[in-house]
């Protein structure tokens, strides 16, 4: 399998070292913690599995999906955080539960293994149905449920945007396997519409970079609309020569946010900006191929502490794959091969009830 490489920035052997650094942290049951001895969440666990697949470590990637199968709850959800042998945070986060659909579709694109897709289809279907039970009449997805089933009273723009992309991946899987889920298509239409047109539907998180670029990364805003959104706050979130701040009012650069922003710019054809951000992210590369989570300027101190995380390494690998443009998964965040044109429900739908 040919590994991605980005000329002048990251060679194939460098990608291999980064993927090796992720595999070294994976536990025997398949779970991929953030770092040795740390916790895992299913979203970042899936991101790691995707990077393992891009790096040619199919066995390790499929062990990661085995862990998801083993830990999925009967209602289709997963808890928010796990530690070795148990649950750390029992909340049921909708975005966390949706993201395995992205990973499963990505793995199918990587391997062409229809048997894998068929085996994981029930897992994806249960998870997406759980998530869509949290959709309001207006279209946004409430953030989470408490373990007793009570929904949280608000939605998050980043989470709903990521769910939109996962929902498109789930619909693509359904179509490939000959399953019809028109209800998912209607839900995707409503979700995309509210993300694009109703910023008031979401809890205010404007200081967070992810709320800036995720509507573009997820494919809700493409073309000129996506480029305009990214341009509008580039100077707020991007430190020239450094990368993307995780929050607008602090000089805290993270490699994961920087590489996700690479994917957003790549998705709307801004190749030059995407490559520039990717170059800047490499100030956080460690000699062993792993990546520090973040760095504070001007002190140039890593944070938290000397932490190097698997999800950060995974974001770098996925950005490299997109920029390389030569694999079956390179266009996933450009929407290649994903369905679009979902019908949107009438804009006269009532607003959702207000939760106490």
Main sheet makeup: 3 strands, antiparallel
Give the neighbour order of strands across the main sheet: 7-8-9
Number of helices: 12
Low-pLDDT ranges? 346-356
Oligomeric form: single chain
Q: Which outline best applies?
A: globular
Structural summary, described in words:
The strands form 4 sheets. A 3-stranded antiparallel beta sheet has the order 7-8-9. A two-stranded antiparallel sheet has the order 1-2. It is mainly alpha-helical and 356 residues long. Strand 5 and strand 6 form a beta hairpin. Helices cover 49% and strands 9% of the residues.
What would the keywords be for this entry?
mainly alpha, 9% strand, 3-stranded antiparallel β-sheet, 356 residues, 9 strands, two-stranded antiparallel ribbon
Could you give a short description of this structure?
Residues 346-356 have low confidence and may be disordered. Helix 2 runs antiparallel to helix 3 and helix 6 (157-177) packs parallel to helix 8 (209-217).
Describe the secondary-structure layout.
Elements: H1 12-23, H2 42-54, H3 58-71, E1 81-83, E2 86-89, E3 92-93, H4 94-111, H5 114-132, E4 144-145, H6 157-177, H7 182-197, H8 209-217, H9 223-237, E5 238-239, E6 243-244, E7 252-254, H10 255-267, H11 271-281, E8 292-296, E9 301-308, H12 310-324
Antiparallel strand pairs: 1-2, 3-4, 5-6, 7-8, 8-9
Helix pairs in contact: 1-2, 1-12, 2-3, 2-4, 2-12, 3-4, 4-5, 4-6, 5-6, 6-7, 6-8, 8-9, 8-10, 10-11, 10-12, 11-12
């Amino acid at each position: 399998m040919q590994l991605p490489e980005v000329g002048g920035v990251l060679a194939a052997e460098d990608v291999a070292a980064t993927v090796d650094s992720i595999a070294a942290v994976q536990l025997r049951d398949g779970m991929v913690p953030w770092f040795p001895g740390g916790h895992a969440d299913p979203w970042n666990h899936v991101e790691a599995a995707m990077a393992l697949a891009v790096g040619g470590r199919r066995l390790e990637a499929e062990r990661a999906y085995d862990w998801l199968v083993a830990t999925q709850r009967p209602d289709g959800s997963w808890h928010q955080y796990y530690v070795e042998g148990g649950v750390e945070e029992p909340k049921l986060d909708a975005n966390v539960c949706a993201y395995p659909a992205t990973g499963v579709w990505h793995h199918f694109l990587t391997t062409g293994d229809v048997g894998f897709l068929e085996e994981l289809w029930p897992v994806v279907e249960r998870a997406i149905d759980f998530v869509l039970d949290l959709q309001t009449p207006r279209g946004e997805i409430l953030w989470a449920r408490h373990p007793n089933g009570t929904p949280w009273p608000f939605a998050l723009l980043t989470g709903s945007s990521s769910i939109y992309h996962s929902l498109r991946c789930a619909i693509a899987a359904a179509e490939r396997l000959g399953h019809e889920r028109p209800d998912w298509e209607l839900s995707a239409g409503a979700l995309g519409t509210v993300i694009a047109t109703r910023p008031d539907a979401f809890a205010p998180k404007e200081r967070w970079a992810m709320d800036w670029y995720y509507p573009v990364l997820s494919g809700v805003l493409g073309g000129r609309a996506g480029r305009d959104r990214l341009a509008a706050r580039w100077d707020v979130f991007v430190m020239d020569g450094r990368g993307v701040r995780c929050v607008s009012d602090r000089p805290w650069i993270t490699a994961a946010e920087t590489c996700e922003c690479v994917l957003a710019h790549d998705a709307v054809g801004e190749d030059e900006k995407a490559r520039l951000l990717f170059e800047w992210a490499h100030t956080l590369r460690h000699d062993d191929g792993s990546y520090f989570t973040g760095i504070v300027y001007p002190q140039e101190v890593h944070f938290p502490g000397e932490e190097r995380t698997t999800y950060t390494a995974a974001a770098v690998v996925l950005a490299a794959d997109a920029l390389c443009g030569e694999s079956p998964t390179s266009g996933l965040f450009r929407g290649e091969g994903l369905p679009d044109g979902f019908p949107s429900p009438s804009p006269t739908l009532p607003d959702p009830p207000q939760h106490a």
